[in-house]
Amino acid sequence: MRTQKILDISLCYHCGEEIVGTDRILDGKHFCCAGCLGVYQILSSNNLCAYYSYNPAPGKRAASNAHFEYLDEPSIIKQLIDYQDHKSTIVTFYIPAIHCSSCIWLLEHLYKINPAIYNSRIDFLKKQVTISYQHKEMSLRHLVETLVEIGYEPAINLQDIVKEKSHSVNKSLILKIAVAGFCMGNVMLFSFPEYFGLSGLESQFQALFGWLNLTLSIPVVFYCGREYFVSAWNSLKHKHVNLDTPLALIIAVLFLRTSYAVVFNSGPGFADTLTGLVFLLLMGKWVKQRTYHHISFDRDYRSYFPIAVTTLTGGRQIPKAINELLVGDRLWIRNGELIPADSIVMKGNAWLDMSFVTGETEPQEKVLGEIAYAGGRQMGEGIELEVVKLPSQSYLTGLWNKEHYNHDSKHHFNDRVAKYFTIAVFVIAFSAMGYWLSYGNSNKAWAAFTAVIIVACPCVLTLSTPFTLSAILSVFDKKGFYVKNTDAVEDMASCNSIVFDKTGTLTTTEQAKLTFTGTLGDEDHKLVASLLTNSPHPLSRQILKSLEYGSFYPVSKYKEIPGKGISGQVCNRMVYAGNKSIFPFDLKGDQQSGVHIVIDTAYKGTFIIEQQWRKGLKELVSTLQHNFLLTVLSGDTANDQEALKRIFPEKADINFEQSPHDKLKAILTKQKNGEKVMMIGDGLNDAGALKQSDFGIAITDNINNFTPGCDAILKGDSLTCLPNFHQLSKDGLKIISISFGIAIAYNCIGLYYAVQGTLYPLVAAVLMPVSTITIISFTSIATRFFARKNNLL
After folding, report:
1. Which of 107, 289, 308, 516 has a Cα-to-Cα distance from 525 of 20 to 30 A?
2. Pairwise CA distance, residues 325 & 390, whole Å
3. C-alpha angle 534/537/538, rounded to 5°?
4. Distance from C-alpha of 129 to C-alpha of 103, rounded to nearest angstrom
5. Do residues 217 and 268 make contact, with C-beta atoms less than 8 angstroms apart?
6. How far is CA 511 from CA 508, 609, 783, in A?
7. For 582-675, where are the alpha helices, taking DSSP H only?
8. What is the distance between the alpha carbons of residues 781 and 575, in angstroms, rounded to a whole number?
9. Kindly report the CA angle at 129 between 343 and 11, in degrees rounded to 5?
């Protein structure tokens, strides 16, 4: 039962703020306002009070009366949501109140508050939450009001908030640097008499200067350095020692020693070292953030969709770069192709596989006028769409790179080392202090303890991996090789076996020689062209180019069987194109291989395509065979077997008539034998093998064969650079090892002087950001050196 009481000072159980006026009490806990009390009641009634176990008073004071009637407006809802089908909606909000582990825990358990919410994913770095909910059971307005009720009001903006925030300046960090710099400058000024000696007149101001320095140290410790204490405390509560723990300790000790010295007039204290240390720490953090941003962590949607999509202009199909798409552009999406931007269905029967977005494998039907969301893969005949939202604003832009924030320990060697290194630093620091205290030299004991913790800060050890691999990503991007994330670069470096698809990978149809054996009338030409325009296969596109038709008949009952061919009903006539296994009857005679054409039951002839091997393929294979086990898995017949034997070494394994399942099985077998497999395919019939491989590359020439399961997309004309890409990834690991050695050497030299008590703490504080800049500079310069060495710059 609730009671009320008037208190002078008390703290709110929910938000931790001071209670002024009415104190609301429930379950023996005090609350500052009805909002905080209401949030607690919501959490309590849903068995979510574990929220308070992660951090004391983790919540935010409930917002004032907010009105969200505008969220009932359909036109506004369409601009805010990322995706919507007949039963579910996905929306992403930027929530400034996200600040700690309790926030993450609560927002990931929203489904307990309302069962209409079935999934919520947090990106702590961006303060962003992506929520999937059933819109028939819960409106967008109700969802937002639920977030407001528990103290997490989203910052709703009809612009692209995430992209906007990623490019904004960290104003809070800048303000803390300004405060710390101001205080440090004044503390140094008041410390000049102490530095240069005190005359009789100046000595009377010693106590005053000491108190002024202590006063200036307070905002530096409790405002500028607050994050270090919060981070250290949270890590210790979870029985973990993070990188901020020694820094928080040294800031606290410096402040306590300064306070003791000033209050008891036993010396000037260490206010100059304290303020200088915090200022330099914050400057180091700012430099690191800016460098991360500059190198590659702000890779935009053009890195995820590097190739063109087919647009319709004046009845003609014209490839267009994804980053050049505009609202109103007409797109032609073939069977198996991915929709790059939210669009409206204008023509055709859309059956979309949305598993990349929602995880559900059952195709969804979209009729004329409905929105087809980015990320859907067309499962039937080609469809015509009109772009309604730019690719940069669609939900798909973050999906391919979503694993960037998944912290898999196997890829974070430096973090694991840093943890043990931090513990070692504590042992050395306390040992050095104990040693000098045993000799009665308290000044040296204190100086040694302070200098060891500052100079041996392990944060420099953690910089080498992300900065090196991010710089490599930037080099790859410029050469048309778009790798998913930094972890994938490490995976590439470990590969010792390469599996190639043939058609569209080793071969290109750009200058292929095409001949037709048989007879096709004008009407037959148009029937065949109408069928082929729905297929993204390189052979279909090459034949279509030779037929030169600007308009096509609509196609129904379209079916494409990977590795076999396509069929569909055109003008009430069944048209087949592919190898002999696609036909519902047996072909008589011994027809040569190629793309066979049958209309109804009449065999019309065969398109014979003499595909051209990619330029420089023989030299590429000759280079790769020294470092990799080479395999070719082709879905075609064995006509090119002799040609491939002349290109590949004798020990290479070459297989034909391989189904997608056969390719997947082959990859699994190789992995069981201990091989680290790199799979290179065109992304059409190889999706399973690409996803299963240790490093999957989807190669493409002039169309968007984007494959969600792959680790990288490679432009066809950059295939010959594959050995260079692999060598640079291995060189990247060398750079990491060298930079790690530099950091260790720096720490060993610094520790040598620090334990002797001859390294002044402020000097150690200056050396720490200098070492950070050294590592950043070394990794950048070394990466460019190896990139030039590998002919990638």
Report:
1. 308
2. 7
3. 125
4. 11
5. no
6. 7, 10, 37
7. 617-624, 641-647, 660-672
8. 59
9. 155
Tell me the DSSP string of 97-129.
T--SHHHHHHHTTHHHH-TTEEEEEEETTTTEE
**What pTM, to 2 d.p., does this model score?**
0.63
The pLDDT, as a whole number, for residue 658 is 85
How far, CA to CA in Å, does 311 sit from each of 156, 329, 332, 347?
33, 7, 6, 14
**Four-residue CA torsion sign, 302, 683, 596, 560:** negative
Run of H or E residues at 688: helix 687-692
Encoded tokens for 252 = 């606290």
Residue 172's contacts (CB-CB under 8 Å, 6 or more residues apart) are: none
Higher pLDDT, 86 or 554: 554
Q: What φ, ψ does residue 493 adopt, rounded to 5°?
A: -65, -25
Q: How far is CA 487 from the centre of its chain?
A: 10
562 touches 684 (CB < 8 A): yes
- Kindly indicate the confidence band of residue 407, based on its pLDDT and cuts at 50, 70 and 90: very low
Per the listing, tokens 């000491």 go with 210
- As a whole number of angstroms, the distance between CA 578 and CA 595 comes to 5
**145 three-state secondary structure:** helix
Phi, psi at 196, each rounded to 5°: -105, 5
Residue 168's SS3 state is coil
Taking only the tens place, the pLDDT of each residue in 303-352 is 445 456 788 887 777 877 776 788 899 998 888 788 888 899 998 888 88
Name the β-bridge partners of 366: 350
In the block, which residue shows the tokens 């004008």? Answer: 522
Q: What is the DSSP letter of 338?
A: B
Q: In this prediction, what percent of the chain has a pLDDT beyond 90?
A: 15
What pLDDT does residue 167 have?
44
Q: How far is 187 from 237, CA to CA, in rounded Å? A: 34
pLDDT, one tens digit per residue, over 211-263 is 898 999 999 999 998 888 887 787 677 666 666 777 788 788 889 888 988 88
Q: What does the H/E/C string look like for 390-446?
A: CHHHCHHHHCCCHHHHCCCHHHCHHHHHHHHHHHHHHHHHHHHHHHHHHCCCHHHHH
**Which residues, listed in sequence order, are joined to residue 192 by a DSSP beta bridge?**
none
C-alpha–C-alpha distance, residues 565 and 555, integer Å: 15
As a whole number of Å, the CA-based R_g of the chain is 33
Contact 282, 223 (CB under 8 A): no
Output the six-digit token pair for 520. Answer: 């096709």
Contact 382, 332 (CB under 8 A): yes
Instruction: Give the residue among 748, 242, 779, 228 at the shortest CA–CA distance from 456.
Output: 748
> 612: helix, coil or strand?
strand
Cβ–Cβ contacts within 10 Å for residue 227, how many? 18
Cα angle vertex 59, ends 57, 64, to 5°?
A: 130
CA-CA-CA-CA dihedral for 301, 307, 310, 312, to nearest 10: 60
The full 3-state SS of 713-777, as one line of letters, equals: EEEHHHHHHHHHHHHHHHHHHHHHHHHHHHHHHHHHHHHHHHCCCCCCHHHHHHHHHHHHHHHHH
- Kindly report which listed range (11-25, 404-418, 604-618, 650-664) carries the lowest average pLDDT score: 404-418
